[in-house]
Amino acid sequence: MAKKQKKQSGTGGTPATVALTAAGTGYTVHAYEHDPAHPSYGDEAAEAMGVSPDRVFKTLVAEVDGELTVAVVPVAGTLNLKALAAAVSGKRAVMADPAAAERTTGYVRGGISPLGQRKRLRTVLDDSASAHATICVSAGRRGLEVELAPADLAALTGAVLAPIGRE
């Protein structure tokens, strides 16, 4: 079962929780035991927290016309690369090299958060997020999620909302 905490203090947190605390944004931390054998980080998070997969969002890093771009989409679906490119007025999008994504964000794969990245990347949030009062995204490491309002996530990351996910 996931452990909940309100507004974890900035000390001892991840860069994502530190950023949320510094911004004064309300959030809830959900911690769970990560199973390295689980085939999907996002599905594992949804199952462990008992949250519908359409409310748990994965953070993916893609290259749009050579520029790294963050896509935040429901774990229940996939990223539409053409839609991502269109959302940022680009022509072509491909998934980023995992090593480049980790190096640029400062997070490991399966724990990349849209918040508190080493280098702030342009971000696109799937517009389905706005159908929920709160969504969950990685808090910066495997086995740790933050739940917050989609509008707060968009404001803190400067995200554009666009239909970039598909079922």
Describe this structure as you would to a colleague:
The protein is of the alpha+beta class and 167 residues long. Helices cover 25% and strands 31% of the residues. The protein has helices spanning 15-23, 41-49, 81-87, 98-105, 150-157; strands at 3-6, 28-31, 57-64, 67-74, 78-79, 93-95, 122-126, 135-141, 144-148, 160-162, 165-166. The strands form 3 sheets. It has a 5-stranded mixed β-sheet with strand order 6-3-4-7-10. Strands 1-2-9-8 form a 4-stranded antiparallel β-sheet. The relative contact order is 0.22.
Topology, element by element:
Blueprint: E1 3-6, H1 15-23, E2 28-31, H2 41-49, E3 57-64, E4 67-74, E5 78-79, H3 81-87, E6 93-95, H4 98-105, E7 122-126, E8 135-141, E9 144-148, H5 150-157, E10 160-162, E11 165-166
Parallel strand pairs: 4-7, 7-10
Antiparallel strand pairs: 1-2, 2-9, 3-4, 3-6, 5-11, 8-9
Spatial separation of the terminal alpha carbons: 27 Å
Q: From the alpha carbons, calculate the radius of gyration and give it in angstroms.
A: 14 Å
How many distinct beta strands?
Answer: 11
Question: Structural class of the secondary elements?
Answer: alpha+beta
How are strands sequenced across the largest beta sheet? 6-3-4-7-10
Give the helix level as a range of percent. Answer: 10-25%
Shape: globular
- Name the assembly state: single chain
Share in β-strands: 25-35%
Segments where pLDDT lies below 50 for 5+ residues?
1-11
Please provide the ordered H/E string of secondary-structure elements: EHEHEEEHEHEEEHEE
Q: Please work out how many helical segments DSSP would assign.
A: 5
Major β-sheet annotation = 5 strands, mixed
What do the pLDDT scores average to? 91
